Amino acid sequence: MDATGTKEEARSEAGRRIEALDIQRIMHAIPHRYPFLLIDRVEDVVHDTSAVGVKNVSINENFFQGHFPSHPVMPGVLIIESMAQTAAVLVVETLGPDAAGKVVYFMMIEGAKFRRPVVPGDQMRIHVRKERNRGNVWKFSAEAKVDGVVVAEATYAAMIMDK
Questions:
Q1: Per-residue DSSP letter, 135
Q2: What CATH code is assigned to 7-161?
Q3: Choice between 151 and 161, residue whose per-residue pLDDT is larger
Q4: Which contiguous run of DSSP H or E holds residue 12?
Q5: In this structure, which long-range contacts are made by residues 127-133, counting pairs with CB atoms below 8 Å and at least 24 apart in sequence?
Q6: Residue 158: CA atoms inside 13 Å, Cβ hemisphere, count?
Q7: What is the side-by-side order of every strand in the sheet holding 149-161?
Q8: In this prediction, what percent of the chain has a pLDDT beyond 90?
Q9: Lowest-confidence region among 101-110, 134-143, 148-157
Q10: pTM check: above 0.85
């Protein structure tokens, strides 16, 4: 709900499907850029409810130069960041155009678990679900999957702020 909307309008919008976002729309929504933009597409967006981020993991990622050169594994903290970026896109799509480009800051991460390594060639699908929000604070649960198998999960809270 934006500043001029009513609670009833916000409720009627909840559950509305939003078309998939390509990389250009993602970059309009959130301020992240290479090498820290960690999602390539956002699909299955349900207004004010959930979204699925897609990350195509390539050997060309800069972090593989040091993590680990002889056994490349995507760092867990970057998997968590990809979850946060997917959630940030959901927040912006829910709040509307005035929220585009705002910054989302982590406030809390709980229950982060890493089930198996994410390696070059994997396509990670990041399923985020809004648990709740109050004002500019949002709480999410997320699972990252590769080939339908959970590779990581976490619950986290973030605050959306002006730059």
A1: T
A2: 3.10.129.10
A3: 151
A4: helix 7-13
A5: 127/50, 127/52, 128/50, 128/51, 128/52, 128/53, 128/83, 128/86, 128/87, 128/90, 129/49, 129/50, 130/48, 130/49, 130/50, 130/87, 130/90, 131/155
A6: 25
A7: 17-18, 41-46, 50-56, 123-134, 137-146, 149-161, 103-114
A8: 82
A9: 101-110
A10: yes
DSSP state of 11: H
HEC assignment per residue over 61-124: CHHHHCCCCCCCCCCHHHHHHHHHHHHHHHHHHHHCHHHCCCEEEEEEEEEEEECCCCCCCCEE
pLDDT score of 1: 45
Active site residue 47: no
The residue from 28, 32, 47, 67 that is catalytic is: 67
> Over the stretch 55-103, which tens digit does the pLDDT of each residue have?
999 999 999 999 998 999 999 999 999 999 999 999 999 999 888 888 8
